[in-house]
Amino acid sequence: MASGKFITFEGIDGAGKSTHIAFVADLLRTRGLTVVTTREPGGTELGESLRSMVLHQKMHLETEALLMFAGRREHLAQVIEPALARGDWVISDRFTDATFAYQGGGRHLSLDKLDALEQWVHPHLQPDLTLLFDVPLEVARARLDAERTLDKFEQEKADFFAATRAEYLRRAKQFPQRFRVIDSTRPIIDIQQEIAQLLADV
Ligand SMILES: Nc1ncnc2c1ncn2[C@@H]1O[C@H](COP(=O)(O)OP(=O)(O)O)[C@@H](O)[C@H]1O
Ligand SMILES: Cc1cn([C@H]2C[C@H](O)[C@@H](COP(=O)(O)OP(=O)(O)O)O2)c(=O)[nH]c1=O
């Protein structure tokens, strides 16, 4: 059986990740692949309960990071690892890079602590491909303001998102073999063409 691949979508809020998930899933299905789409925080019943807590309640920064990894542990056990073991492809709207970017970059939690949690929760598994949707903060903010009620993270100030974006870009440089940075200021159709080309190589 062909082995499944693990693809993650990352970027600051409003960068355009969610817009492209269904497109990528459909593209892979036209290749005859079985695709599981999922998200973090969330992806399981427990994870969705944790999601509503971390997105709406104030809490200590380390509690926030620990809950992200607790939800991830459950997500890996219940969804991601079984799907990959079946040979399915998994597309996740955010994964561990988001914890490094938001809790590490945005909120300045020690990256060493996050490294330790990552080693604990998934010492061996990494995404095969991470699409980082990159936009300047003003573009992301204008897109969000146009569309929805903002959660705890989306209400953060510009310097939080600057630090979050910087940490994402730093990780993209650190792990060039799996990251692809997508200029998400361009029209949706142009971005989809680029993604289709990238996926041809996976
Ligand atoms: N390339 C783009 N050009 C213009 N608007 C976009 C683009 N990508 C996404 N949008 C719009 O921006 C908003 C936020 O996009 P979304 O995919 O929900 O972002 P994210 O999931 O990264 O938070 C949506 O209204 C979406 O239609
Ligand atoms: C996975 C993850 C998400 N987050 C944040 C980023 C987002 O602001 C928020 C929810 O992510 P997301 O699902 O992208 O939000 P939306 O559905 O509104 O587009 O959680 C973290 O802070 N750390 C994490 O580890």
From TrEMBL:
Any Pfam family hit: Thymidylate_kin
Gene3D superfamilies according to UniProt: P-loop containing nucleotide triphosphate hydrolases
Catalytic activity: dTMP + ATP = dTDP + ADP
Broadest EC class assigned to this enzyme: transferase
Family: Belongs to the thymidylate kinase family.
Free-text function comment from the UniProt entry: Phosphorylation of dTMP to form dTDP in both de novo and salvage pathways of dTTP synthesis.
Protein name from the UniProt record: Thymidylate kinase
Organism: Herbaspirillum rhizosphaerae
Top-level taxonomy: Bacteria, Pseudomonadati, Pseudomonadota, Betaproteobacteria, Burkholderiales
